Fold these 2 entries.
Entry 1:
Amino acid sequence: MSNVEYRAEGAVGVVTINRPKALNALNSEVLNDLLAAFDGIDLQQVRAVILTGAGEKAFVAGADIGEMSTMTKEEGEAFGKTGNAVFRKIETFPVPVIAAINGFALGGGCELALSCDIRICSDNAVFGQPEVGLGITPGFGGTQRLARAISVSKAKEMLYTGKSVKADEAYRIGLVNSVYPQAELMEGAMKLAQTIARNAPIAVRQCKKAVNEGLDMDLEAGLALESKLFGDCFETLDQREGMSAFLEKRKGVQFVNG
Ligand code: CAA
C-alpha cells in the first residue's frame, strides 16, 4: 500500500504523507511513493499543490532513523541523493507547492518543507535539524536551503545546536509565512492554493521559474530571464483574456491555461 495519498479538489492537488505510526518518517519506500505521487499529478487540471502529513502530530519527523542506522558510507550517500532528487522534483515542480506543516518538521521534514514554495504551519508545529545529535549532517538539502531561507547565522545556530524552534519563532525568523490553529490549517492552505489557482496558470508558473532560476544567477542574468518569460506571456490566450477583462471592466476572468 502506498505511504502517500493524493487527491485533487478542482484545480488544487493535495499530497498527504501517510505513515503516522512513524510520524511520517521518510524511508526509501515513502520517498519513492512521494515521487510517484508528484509524477502522477495532472498538470492540465492542477494549478497549485498542497503537501501535508497525516495525523495531528507530525508533518514529517525526519528521514527514517531505523533504515539509516545500518547504512554504509556508499548507502548513506545514495540515500541522500535519492532524497535530494525527490525534493528537487518538488522544488522545480511546474506549479507552486504549499507545505501545510501540521506538527513536527524535523530533519528531512524541515528539509521537505524548505523545498516547497510557500510554508504555512499549525500552532503545534516544531522545526529543527537535529541531525548532529545523531552523528550525521542533514542529507536532504538542509545545509543549503535553510541558509538560503532564513539568516545564515540563525540557520547555522539551528544546524550546529540541533535545537528546534516552535511555530511562533518559525514565523518570527521567516521560516513560515503564517501560523494557524491546527483545525484551520488545511482550510487556510486550501484558500491560499485556490487564490493562486484563480490566476493565469502560465504566468504563475513563469513567476516560479523566474524566482527559482533567478536566485542562482547574477542580477543581470536574472533580469534577462525575467524579460524572456515576460515576453512569452504575450503569446498566451490568458494574457489576452486577463487584459481584455480589465479593459472591459468585466468580472469573472476565465483563464484557460493556454
Ligand atoms: N525515523 C524513524 N522512526 C521515527 C522517526 C524517524 N525520524 N521519528 C519518529 N519515529 C517513530 C518512533 O520511533 C516511534 O515509533 P515506535 O512507536 O515504533 O517506537 C513513533 O515514530 C512515535 O515517535 P515517539 O514515540 O518518539 O514520539 P514522541 O512524541 O515521544 O516524540 C519526536 C516525537 C520528538 C518527533 C521524536 O519521535 C523524535 O525525536 N524523532 C526523531 C526526529 C529526528 O531526529 N529527525 C531527524 C532524522 S535524521 C534526518 O532526517 C537526516 C536527513 O536529513 C536526511
Entry 2:
Amino acid sequence: MSSDLPIRMVSRIVRGFGRGSKELGIPTANLSKQDFACSLGEFESLPTGIYWGFGRVGEPRQQDDDSVLGRVLPAAISVGYNPHYKNEEKTVEPHLIVESKHPRRHASATQETLLADFYDETIVLSICGFIRDELPFEGVEKLIEAIKRDIQATETLAANCDGDALAEKEWVASASKL
Ligand code: ADP
Ligand code: RBF
Ligand code: MG
C-alpha cells in the first residue's frame, strides 16, 4: 500500500452532472462535501488521481434480490477535477464493481456495473492504492478505454489483496463513522 494510504471516508451520495452513466456508461457515486469525514488531513490535500479500494453503500439488509446495499464491493475511484471535462470542483467518485456473475455486472452501456440508484445513502470508502494520474483524454472513447482498464486492475487487486488492504475491507464492512 502506498505511503499516505489507506484513506478512510464516510459521506453521503449526491448528484453530479450525470455524465458517468449517460456519456461514459460508467456511473460513479459522488461523495458530498458537506457530510464528509476523511481520516487523513484535509480533503483538499488528498492528491488527485485514480485509485482502487473498497466501498459500501447503506446498511446490510435482507438480501432477497440483487441489491448490493450493505455489501463491501471493490471500487475504482476518481479523485480530482475530471480534466477531460475541466471541472472546477474536486470530487471523489467511486465506481462500485459487482462480481462477474452478478446480473448487474455488465448491465451498463459500456458493459460495466449498473446498479439501481442509491442517491442520499451513506457511503463508507477506503482508498487503498494509487493506479494512475487523471488525464485529459482527447475524445470520450479513449477515456472509456482507460477507465475500463482501471476497473480490470481494481478487480485483480481487490481479489488478491492481503495484509493492510484486507484490514481495510474489514473496516469498510463494519464502520459507521471514522
Ligand atoms: P452523478 O453525476 O449524479 O454522480 P452518474 O451518472 O455518475 O451521476 O451516476 C451515479 C449514480 O448512479 C450513483 O450516485 C448511484 O446512485 C448510481 N449507480 C449505479 N450503479 C453504480 C455503480 N456501479 N457505482 C456507483 N454508482 C452507481
Ligand atoms: N476523468 C478524466 O477526465 N480523466 C481520467 O483519466 C479519468 N479517469 C477515471 C477513472 C475511473 C476509474 C473513474 C471511475 C472515473 C474517471 N474519470 C476520469 C472521471 C469521469 O470523467 C467522471 O467519473 C465522469 O465525468 C462522471 O462524473
Ligand atoms: Mg458520478
